[in-house]
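Case study 2.
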Amino acid sequence: MNRREFSNLLGGAAAIWSQRAYAQQQAAPSSPIRREWLDRRKEPILEPELPIIDPHHHLWQRPGWRYLLDDLLLDTASGHNIVATVYMEASSMYRDRGPEEMRPVGEVEFANGVAAMCNSGVFGKTRVAAGIVGHADMMLASRVEPVLTALMRAGGDRFRGIRHGVSWEAEAATLRPNPSTRAGMLADKKFREGVAVVGGHGLSYDVSLYHTQIGEVADLANALPNTRIVLNHVGGVLGLGSYRSKREEVFARWSSSIKALAARPNVFVKLGGLGQSYTTLRFDEDAEPPSSEMVAARFRPYIETCIAAFGVDRSMFESNFPPDGASSSYPILWNAFKRLAAGYSPSEKAMLFGGTAKRVYRLA
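Prediction:
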């Protein structure tokens, strides 16, 4: 199915989604993705039969940046065997009325609708949003309970967890401001109480942050040993401001923190997110798009450190699309991951490319 056929099928519903989402995302940045630049690099697909569960992607409509189901399907149908995905919250498609804390329920309603569409088989083999991770404000503490109830109702048997990002660092806060985060959130009594409620429902907690905060995740994991915690994007390797010229220093601090965090058995790690704008590992400033060999070479120290620390049964490759689409195309990125996993056995690859995600997010 091509983009025109897809759009015709969605009809007026897509227009309504776009208009409402646009109104909600007026402050969002324009898209950094240059499709024509990415398309200049083509490669044969490596191991095209290898089943992949992509455990981290978004769908959104923002000013100048559209990435909805038809865009995702163009990527997942680009050659790799993407059998299922996990939808990750992105402050997208919120309700535009009602109590503030309940507005994120709209995003899960949207994601579950997309999942139902894909579960019909009409849009191909990929079961998009087979698992759904939504957002709830952990600072509500125990008062988050009715929000979780509403999210679980909205997501049905696909709802799997919560992400509440806490990315904060003094210099980065100036360069990449986020008014919803502040220092020390993971240690806040209310925040931990909220995460404990999440864990009490058997749900996972995904955390996005900067590498300077990884020690705080370890403390949270110690305090809540029965809650599954998923570290996004190998822990957010920061490359803004003065960090831009300190890659070796950053790597040393990051790797030490990762090894310490891996000692907590309730923590899992997502292998990806390294091509984002806040890192020094991106390719979007290059004249030509990277090959998968180039991506693998640049990401290798971080990926190998994580797998060595967490093991294949607590590590999972992620696309983090569309943000990582600023640096490389979807097929190039998964080719790079396959190059990075070339030395692993078939059973180990099965874990890295799907088994861990299937277990963590309890996918059928």
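Residues 214 and 257 are 6 Å apart (CA to CA).
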